[in-house]
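Q: Sequence in, structure out?
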Amino acid sequence: MKLAVLSAADGAAWEERLVMGLGRGSSVEIVRRCVDVVELLAVAASGQGRAALIAAGLRRLDAEAVDRLRASGVVAVGVVARGDESAEPRMQAMGMSHLVPEDVEPSVLASVLAEAVRDAEAPAGSRRAYADTSSVPVPTRAIPPGSG
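A: Exactly. Output:
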């Protein structure tokens, strides 16, 4: 079964190239190309996609829109132009943890989309950070009653 993906590129040149590239034997299928945030949110709410490719320059894109996508079960993956140094932190501040450059290869994009969906479906707390010691047993010492 192919991963259903929405896109909202606001006329960005990368969209056509990636849609065509993902259509060639990929595990990902662009099921709807949305013209704006309003359409993207409506399509996401209808359950048609699991992930959304979103242009960094999409008008009216904000943290609330990303939250609404997440509430609809759609993970947002941002597409940024190389050299646009403000786009990455702006999109991360909106809640997007998966970003790709606009010249990404379709095969790499398919992997990122699959990873983003897996991450979104993972139970809370199931992923460990590098320095997370939560699963390391902590030695305890029995203290006799009345001595503490």
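Residues 126-142 have pLDDT under 50 and may be disordered.
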